[in-house]
Specification:
19 helices; eight-stranded mixed sheet; alpha+beta
């Protein structure tokens, strides 16, 4: 007999695991999260936090969103990616990144009520974990997952208490493997993967040093140091990353993946830091050092019966584009409401099959994009004359040639500008972050054709209410108080929401009927003049892609489940049909 029982057992308390626990507890679902270590993240490895992830934190509550901003470096400080010969040396060029170009900033402001920021994992994890535990999650640290067995009624998991050495059995209805890039859960359910692990070797060196005089006038998250002979993770340069402005840093430095991983001591760390900063007298306080591998692998299926994987367990890739923790947290937003609906008896178990159908394509997309971004450094090396195989002394001559007053040097300068600007596909790829559109049985299109992307889908978010897309953000206004609310604030939080307008009152009546029949809360937002919510700017009318009397049904994860242009002949029948299909009832 199991020693502990719960509805959902989560293995791992990283961004994916802690977010899943926080969401399930917010939805009233009993869950337990275990972690083999004594505490949470001890290095600030993940840090870029995009708008979609901030929307998940906002859905968890204003307090959660506000605390994230409190500890984050503001978007303005994420600044401009700098390419230089060293922090103290000559600057080669820079590009406005992370939504800080005026045109990109406008897109960010129009796309979401939230702001992108830089929140290191050492701050994100405790925030999510605290939220989970304060809302009901039972947590066990120093508890190592060993194995599990499934049956028709649930999952029996065996763990080891690393303090006592004793084995602990936990009985749950469902098991979530959020146990990282070396996931045992993924291995035990024989998840199919494509790609390759260990395609390059890198090390992280975390240290404290006041570098304000080199960087405060040009704030950035990333300083790319182009030095002949230096190397990082197969990329071919050194990277100095801001952790805290401007006195905590992380250097990424490469090593030969075919050789044993190096031992990084204070002397080596100091030497590398001095070289990249360009200050031979620099003294650092070494905080930590660890090695890691560049991976290019993703799960093509993310579940087996009652067991699911998410986060790095499912998508394993380099930190390019800052997609890791973001995608992990968004995995949790997709799965948590589905588990809650099934456990509450509001949905059939087939709803859970849509998790993999919706998130596995995202895993493939972001692993492909992150690895492609590494390759897109090639034109920068070529323009600087630092291509692979060139002697370091010749590299230095080529690098300095850009300063000459010759036609060749003028062409080189143009090539450098173009190559740096092209890195917007890594450092300002708003579409990669926001354009996810789901296709599964949890979406009902009624045959509506997906709208084509009119702009570059990797660079630009393009809003639509086509079923499968996230509901567009616009500001709407409270009729009584005048307070503004994002459309995203008017939905989510574990419930389905139906948006309609004047003439669509029949949908409100239908929602009450179907809600009572199914035991499923459905919130209705009837938008129009003299109604509780008003569209004073007309932005909702322009974004909704339906008439006043039509409706848009939004899932708890803020993705559109279904829409219809006008009030139908029998709204109750149609809403019943659609929800019955989506929820596999």
């Amino acid at each position: 007999m199991a020693q502990i029982e719960t509805d959902v057992l989560i293995i791992g308390t990283g961004p994916a695991g802690s977010a899943t626990a926080a969401l399930l507890s917010s939805y009233g679902i009993a869950n337990m999260a275990v972690n083999r270590y004594r505490w949470l993240a001890n290095t600030p490895r993940a840090h870029i936090t995009n708008q979609r992830t901030m929307e998940v934190l906002r859905d968890l509550g204003q307090d959660v969103e506000d605390e994230a901003y409190l500890f984050a470096a503001h978007q303005d400080l994420m600044g401009e990616n700098v390419f230089c010969e060293s922090l103290a040396g000559e600057e080669i060029g820079r590009m406005k990144s992370w939504g800080n170009h005026p045109l990109s900033k406008a897109e960010h402001l129009l796309s979401s009520p939230t702001m992108m920021n830089d929140l290191p994992q050492t701050f994100m994890e405790p925030l999510l974990f605290k939220t989970a535990c304060s809302r009901g999650t039972q947590a066990r640290l120093s508890t190592e997952y060993l194995s599990h067995e499934q049956d028709a009624e649930g999952v029996t998991t065996t763990c080891r208490d690393r303090l006592s050495g004793e084995e602990v059995t936990i009985r749950s209805k469902y098991l979530v493997g959020a146990d990282g890039g070396n996931s045992l859960v993924a291995q035990h359910i024989d998840t199919p993967f494509e790609g390759q692990m260990g395609v390059g070797g890198s090390m992280n060196i975390v240290f404290r040093a006041d570098l304000s005089k080199y960087v405060a006038h040009r704030p950035s998250v990333l300083y790319w140091v182009m030095q002949p002979g230096s190397n990082v993770g197969g990329i071919g340069m050194g990277l100095v990353r801001m952790v805290r402005p401007w006195n905590e840093w992380l250097i990424v430095w490469g090593y030969d993946i075919s050789a044993p991983a190096p031992e990084v001591d204070e002397a080596m760390a100091t030497q590398v830091a001095r070289q990249l900063v360009g200050d031979p007298e620099l003294e650092i306080e070494l905080l930590s050092a660890n090695t890691w591998t560049v991976n290019n692998m993703y799960a093509t299926h993310m579940q087996r019966d009652r067991v699911f994987i998410m986060g790095d367990a499912a998508h394993r890739h380099p930190p390019s584009n800052g997609l890791g923790s973001n995608t992990s947290i968004q995995d949790s937003f997709n799965l948590a409401w589905k588990l809650a609906a099934v456990l509450k008896g509001q949905a059939g178990t087939a709803l859970l099959d849509t998790y993999s159908a919706e998130r596995a394509p995202v895993a493939k997309q972001i692993v492909t994009r992150a690895n492609q971004s590494i390759g897109e450094f090639g034109p920068i090396f070529e323009s600087l004359g630092m291509a692979e195989g060139v002697d370091p002394e010749v590299m230095q001559e080529n690098l300095e040639a850009r300063c000459n007053a010759t036609p060749d040097a003028e062409q080189q300068r143009a090539a450098i500008r173009d190559a740096i600007a092209f890195k917007k596909y890594e450092f300002d790829a708003h579409g990669v972050e926001m354009n996810q559109r789901y296709r599964s049985d949890a979406i009902e299109t009624d045959g509506q054709i997906e709208p084509a992307f009119e702009m570059d889908a990797e660079l630009h978010y393009q809003p639509t209410t086509w079923p499968g897309a996230r509901i567009p953000h616009v500001w709407l206004f409270d009729h009584k108080t005048g307070d503004r609310h994002s459309t995203l604030d008017l939905c989510g939080k574990g419930d389905f929401t139906l948006f309609t307008g004047i003439g669509g009152e029949g949908w409100e009546t239908a929602a009450k009927t179907v809600s009572a029949e199914m035991g499923l809360p459905i919130n209705v937002r009837l938008i129009g003049p003299r109604r509780a919510i008003e569209d004073l700017t007309g932005d909702w009318a322009r974004a909704r892609e339906i008439s006043d009397s039509g409706c848009i049904l939004v899932r708890p994860d803020q993705h559109v489940a279904w829409r219809i242009e006008d009030l139908s002949a029998d709204p109750t029948r149609d809403l019943r049909r659609v929800l019955g299909s989506i929820l596999a009832r």
